[in-house]
Automatic annotation (TrEMBL):
It is found in: Cell membrane; Membrane. Keywords: Cell inner membrane, Cell membrane, Membrane, Protein transport, Translocation, Transmembrane, Transmembrane helix, Transport. This is Sec-independent protein translocase protein TatB. GO terms for biological process: protein transport by the Tat complex. HAMAP family: TatB (MF_00237).
Length: 156
């Protein structure tokens, strides 16, 4: 690297003052300053571009390793899923695997029975026996029906 100290800068300034002259020296110094600024910006841009390309390469490598790991996980899941399917097929195949103590003809698979839930019936979180014990209303009434229910009877 170029090592320029204060003494070398003073020597360069004195030579420039003698060669260029005192009239043109400020304009030349301004031009040299702008050129140095442009050169520094250019070097900084090149450095940032190199850093970006290095980071991009690192990200590509990281992406490839992650994709490889994902493929390995996917393959292991597929192999375990296929093993599970084989085991499940063997466990649920009632015709080929009879019970040990029962004969092959006595293995009976129960028929499907619907759970019989009524989807129209709304079930609350509070049990019905608790509502009836504590006097919680279970049916909604309109305001007029409630007033008629609690109005004293008419005497004729």
């Amino acid at each position: 690297m170029i090592d320029i100290g204060f003494s070398k800068l003073a020597l360069i300034g004195a030579v420039a003052l003698i060669v260029i002259g005192p009239e043109k020296l400020p304009r030349v110094a301004r031009t040299v300053g702008t050129l140095l600024g442009k050169a520094q910006r250019y070097v900084a841009d090149v450095k940032s571009e190199v850093n970006r390309s290095m980071e991009l390469d690192e990200l590509k490598k990281m992406k490839e390793t992650m994709e490889g790991a994902a493929r390995d996980v996917e393959q292991s899941i597929q192999t375990s899923a296929s093993e599970f399917e084989k085991d499940w097929a063997q466990a649920t195949d009632f015709n080929t695997t009879p019970a040990l103590d029962a004969p092959a003809s006595s293995t009976v698979v129960p028929a499907y029975r619907h759970p019989g839930k009524n989807w129209r019936l709304k079930r609350g979180a509070m049990p019905q026996w608790y509502k009836s014990r504590n006097g919680v209303r279970t049916k909604a009434q309109s305001g007029a029906a409630r007033m008629a229910r609690h109005r004293p009877p008419k005497f004729h």
